[in-house]
């Protein structure tokens, strides 16, 4: 059961990282935080380069990985924008919709058949989303309207689309291109740091000003999140080396439930019981979909 322990540790680290991100985003802009975190992640990932067998790393795999990190950086930025502007107990559960989108696009674009359990899983995702977004004394169509009307919910939609693409590319890199976990972790963190640096330059942000305005307390929080991020990504990859991806991801999804309970209580967010029920429904649907990967 070593894989289960690794996956469970990954889930716990991920949950604590998400709550810490919300704490930091009260004081920092989402882009500035994403940039600073990417730099620290890259620094903490440098030891992985000492373990890489560079003879097994191809230029094609690195090019594909770099393209994937562009999408990954955009996905992460949109998640941070959503967490900053929405309650964590309302934003994070929606990230569980990724497996549903993967299955949907595989059906539409690739013609892959959907089994009965997958269709039921997608229905549970829709139900969970509805329960999550329904509000007291609102009309029954409000959960659907909110995704059209709310700019903050648009961030979630963008993140889900980007994560859908990166999920497919992750599978290709690890399976078809035989990229090792060490190479994956090392190059991915460096590439993401490069991507956020480019975004900062495009936005004409003053890098020195960004570093200069961060308080010591915020630096400690950012360092904590960086360590947690490297930790949960690495333990997840190590778990995937031992057990099927489906089993690992099923356990990793528990992080969302942990995050909304911890974050919801910490930040005194509303309707936690309803949001917890919605999250359980969403997780059930995701697990049904993941089990067919």
Q: Quick summary of this structure?
A:
Helix content is 79%, strand content 0%. With 293 residues, the chain is mainly alpha-helical.
Based on CA atoms alone, the radius of gyration comes out at: 19 Å
Extended strand count: 0
Provide the domain count.
Answer: 1
Broad structural category: mainly alpha
Cα separation of the termini: 21 Å
- How do the helices and strands follow one another from N- to C-terminus? HHHHHHHHHHHHHH
Number of helices: 14
Question: What ranges have pLDDT less than 50 throughout 5 or more consecutive residues?
Answer: none
In percent terms, what proportion of residues is strand? under 5%
The general outline is globular
Helical residue percent band: over 70%
What is the residue-averaged pLDDT? Answer: 86
Sheet having the most strands? none
Task: Describe this structure as you would to a colleague.
Helix content is 79%, strand content 0%. The protein is mainly α. The chain has one domain. The chain is globular.
List descriptors:
0% strand; single chain; 293 residues; mainly alpha
Give a topology summary.
Layout: H1 2-25, H2 30-45, H3 59-85, H4 88-91, H5 98-110, H6 116-133, H7 142-149, H8 151-176, H9 181-202, H10 207-212, H11 216-242, H12 245-252, H13 254-266, H14 272-290
